[in-house]
Design goal:
Elements lengths: L23 H7 L7 E6 L3 E6 L3 H11 L8
Antiparallel strand pairs: 1-2
Length: about 70
């Protein structure tokens, strides 16, 4: 499968405690450092997304506006 430029995919295993390690290459690409907060979003149909802290407000606003919770269009 060809992955478009700027798009990434990594396989990880979930441990017994439900934890997984974000691959080193992914941490480097996205500038993730120890102690940083990330936002984990879940959608039954679409899956899980992980966002760095600086994208949290933008993502939440977009999601909630799409649902019409802040006066956005549905």
């Amino acid at each position: 499968m060809d992955i478009p430029n700027g798009k990434y995919a990594w396989m990880v295993k979930i441990g017994e405690k439900g934890q997984f390690v974000i691959p080193k290459e992914a941490r480097e690409v996205f500038g993730l450092k120890p102690g940083m907060e990330i936002l984990v979003l879940g959608d039954i149909e679409r899956g899980i997304a992980i966002l760095p802290a600086e994208k949290q407000q933008e993502a939440l606003s977009s999601i909630l506006n799409a649902e019409g919770l802040f006066g956005g269009e549905t």
